């Protein structure tokens, strides 16, 4: 007896997103006006989880606040489906309503919890520009946004000392020629600094405070609980001392009577 014939259903392979200069677009985004605002890069539709794939490891979800106001559950479902599919996950918000602050605030909280970056655009043009730029900068190194630090010793010395209030580049040159090194400047006495041209009392005080004062102060201390505990223990000890109850009674008796509260 021969085996029954089986019908082999052809398996449709998923669309492999391109790795070139094209932005991969989710078919759900067909008809979105932002597509006409994506310029200087190619576009193609592909089977992706995000709305726009602007890099091999970067996915973008697009959300109109007008749509979000009508369907607040939509973005939560999309974020859940997105999961950790991309190293960099972006929520591109189109701000197309007047009262937008509360909505953006709540969406930002959701994105912080899910480790998603928020970008806010106030027009389709701006949203398209964001997507185009993200794709164009896909392989760009972060040098453009990195702080540029000179490796020259004099430049580093100038940057460090001019961060002190009232100290300018001329003062730095005076300090360098007078003391030679940063260590010698830090060890200089107030009298030595006052003998330099252009160094008054305020400038000398600022320099010495920068080198001698601790970084932390009372405003930035990290042990307020210990301090309050110490104060409470002192007040407890003082209340047990003889005569403290008499003082408290006298103090309370000297207080003016309270006025009756209005009905």
UniProtKB/TrEMBL annotation:
Q: Which GO terms describe its cellular component?
A: ERCC4-ERCC1 complex; nucleotide-excision repair factor 1 complex
Q: What is this protein called?
A: DNA excision repair protein ERCC-1
Q: Where are the residues of the annotated region Disordered?
A: 227-263
Where does the record place Polar residues bias?
Answer: 240-255
Q: What is the lineage of its organism?
A: Eukaryota, Fungi, Dikarya, Basidiomycota, Agaricomycotina
Record's family? Belongs to the ERCC1/RAD10/SWI10 family.
Q: Which GO terms describe its biological process?
A: double-strand break repair; mitotic recombination; UV-damage excision repair
Task: Give start-end ranges for the coiled-coil region(s).
Answer: none
Compartment(s) of residence: Nucleus
What gene is this protein a product of?
Answer: ERCC1
What UniProt keywords are attached to this protein's entry? DNA damage, DNA repair, DNA-binding, Nucleus
> Domain named ERCC1-like central: which ranges?
22-135
Supply the SUPFAM superfamilies for this chain: Restriction endonuclease-like, RuvA domain 2-like
Question: Which PANTHER family does the protein's record reference?
Answer: DNA EXCISION REPAIR PROTEIN ERCC-1 (PTHR12749:SF0), EXCISION REPAIR CROSS-COMPLEMENTING 1 ERCC1 (PTHR12749)
Ranges of compositional bias, category Low complexity: 227-239
Single Gene Ontology MF annotation: single-stranded DNA binding
Q: Which InterPro entries match?
A: ERCC1-like_central_dom, ERCC1/RAD10/SWI10, Restrct_endonuc-II-like, RuvA_2-like
Q: Does the keyword tRNA processing apply?
A: no
